Amino acid sequence: MSDLGGIKESLIKGDANKVKELVEAAVKEKTPVGEILNQGLIAGMNVVGAKFKNNEFYVPEVLIAARAMHAGMDILQPLLAESGIKPIGKIAIGTAKGDLHDIGKNLVIMMLKGGGFEVEDLGIDVPEEKFVESVKAGTQLIGISALLTTTMPSMKTVIEALRAAGLKDRVKVMIGGAPITQAYADEIGADGYSPDAASAVDKAKELI
Ligand code: B1M
């Protein structure tokens, strides 16, 4: 029998080799891919998210767990495409134009992937045109991360560009980053704000 609990626990511990080994074994035993994903990898990442929220885990533990999740996802990804399991939604995330900070953005991406979303990483210093293109290609939620007070205004530019392209009612915009607040999100017309990577998953589920 597949050790889905073992996958979950190894992911929480950040043991990428063990996660890979157990996911491979589960696939060999013909365990449905959705079960491996939901009861193994996503279940583990949910615990990591909760521990991060409660300050029981810090950034390094989350990054190590995320690496373990990737080790499992690398095996499941081609099988997921074949099995027709649909992700919860499609999200594109980038760091605001002019901003090179990406540690927080990468954490948010890891957590969203762990939460069952398909995530496109648009990278750092992302101009508004790139967000617009991604919405044209079917993205349902745009995520923008900013760490500098000087790059915060470019989040508003993205929202304006989406409006100008007539796409704003097709997509939700979520923002985050150390200097960002709910008040700022309200001010620029963003649909959501989340203070940390774990809450970003809840917010994305609420918005999509
Ligand atoms: Co920079 N930097 N930095 N920096 N840097 C800060 C942000 C700063 C606060 C340091 C300081 O002065 N005390 C300051 C900003 C001041 C301000 O604007 N108020 C600053 C500055 C000034 C600069 C430069 C201008 C320095 C210079 O060159 N003179 C320069 C700017 C470069 C640029 O972007 N154009 C610069 C450069 C750099 C490095 C390249 C050296 C490096 C970045 C490396 C990298 O990211 N690959 C760096 C770093 C590491 C920092 C600090 C030390 C750490 C940032 C970080 O990664 N935090 C930072 C000081 C600090 O915070 N102590 C600082 C950890 C990360 C997990 O947290 O990103 O907040 P955070 O993400 C959180 C939440 O905010 C949230 O979830 C994450 C996890 O919980 N979240 C989201 C983030 N994005 C989200 C998106 C969401 C939802 C939630 O939805 C879409």
Descriptors:
single chain, 208 residues, alpha/beta, Methyltransferase, Methionine Synthase (B12-binding Domains), Chain A, domain 1, Rossmann fold, 2 domains, five-stranded parallel beta sheet, 9 helices, 5 strands, 58% helix, 13% strand, globular, binds CO-5-methoxybenzimidazolylcobamide
Layout of strands and helices, then pairs:
Layout: H1 4-13, H2 16-28, H3 33-53, H4 59-83, E1 90-96, H5 103-114, E2 118-126, H6 128-136, E3 141-145, H7 153-164, E4 172-176, H8 182-188, E5 192-193, H9 197-207
Bound molecules: CO-5-methoxybenzimidazolylcobamide.
Question: How would you portray this structure in words?
Answer:
With 208 residues, the chain is α/β, with parallel strands linked by helices. It has 2 domains: 4-83, Methyltransferase, Methionine Synthase (B12-binding Domains), Chain A, domain 1 (Orthogonal Bundle); 90-207, 3-Layer(aba) Sandwich (Rossmann fold), CATH 3.40.50. It contains 9 helices and 5 strands; from the N terminus they run ααααβαβαβαβαβα. Strands 2-1-3-4-5 form a 5-stranded parallel sheet, with helices on both faces. The longest helix is centred in the middle third of the chain and has 25 residues, at 59-83. The radius of gyration is 17 Å and the shape is globular. The N and C termini lie far apart (35 Å). The relative contact order is 0.13. The protein binds CO-5-methoxybenzimidazolylcobamide. The site of CO-5-methoxybenzimidazolylcobamide has 29 residues, from helix 5, strand 3, strand 4 and helix 9.
